[in-house]
Amino acid sequence: MKHFYLSLLLLCPITCINAQSLTVIEDYGGRSTSPYFDAIGIVPNASALSSALELSPTPAALHQPSQVSQQDESFVLPISSKRLTPGPVAPRIINAPGLLPFFLIGDDELSRKWLKERRSILREMGAFGLVVNVDSMDSLDQLRQLAPEITLSPTPGDDLAARLQLKHYPVLITATGIEQ
Q1: How many CA atoms lie within 13 A of 167 on its CB side?
Q2: What share of the chain has pLDDT > 70, as a percent?
Q3: I want to staple 107 with a disulfide (CB 3.0 to 4.6 A). Which of 49, 81, 116, 139 is the partner?
Q4: What are the pLDDT digits (tens) for 40-80?
Q5: How many angstroms separate the CA atoms of 161 and 62, rounded?
Q6: d(CA 64, CA 2)
């Protein structure tokens, strides 16, 4: 037992001498994302970004059947985005590498027509839809029947509207542009 304690005492100075500071290989936090948004011409808004990150699904989750039941979705309805209304959207170029294509629609005639006309293109590009104005589960189901192979999720759109400087929908947002 004495030898054990003696060995332990002798090793302590060696351990202290050999102790080195940690080397950080990758740091995923603590840096502002503003330069990235400046590069694509989007106005920074910290609260919008944090809200969007909390609500953003992972890429793998976007192409799998939703685990959310209709009862769960009806709990968030109605969805009303005060900054967004149906109307024309001028196309513009953005530079957002890695951004998955998505679109914004509402429960209105313009959005229904837009979704019907573009559903095959949207499906081919793997786009998912955010329904930013919808009153009821029945209305959401009617939109889903227009494009059953595309994920449509009821989501408030005011933060996205502020971030992307949008006033109207329907609109498609990709890594390279915003267009109607």
Answers
A1: 4
A2: 61
A3: 139
A4: 666 555 555 455 545 545 554 544 545 555 557 878 889 99
A5: 21
A6: 63
Half-sphere exposure of 171 (CA within 13 A, CB side): 24
Report the distance separating Cα 111 and Cα 143, nearest Å: 9
Q: What is the distance, to the nearest Å, from the Cα of residue 84 to the centroid of all Cα atoms in its chain?
A: 18
Q: How far apart are CA 62 and CA 49, in angstroms?
A: 19
Do the Cβ atoms of 81 and 161 come closer than 8 Å? yes
Report the distance separating Cα 55 and Cα 38, nearest Å: 22
pLDDT of residue 72: 72
Return the sign of the alpha-carbon dihedral for residues 52, 54, 58, 64.
negative
Strands 92-93 and 168-169: unpaired
The structure tokens listed for 148 are 């059953």
Structure tokens at 104: 């914004």
Question: Based on the number of CB atoms within 10 Å of its own CB, is 89 exposed (0-12), middle (13-18) or buried (19 or more)?
Answer: middle
E-strand ranges in the chain read 85-86, 92-93, 102-106, 128-133, 152-154, 168-169, 171-173, 177-179
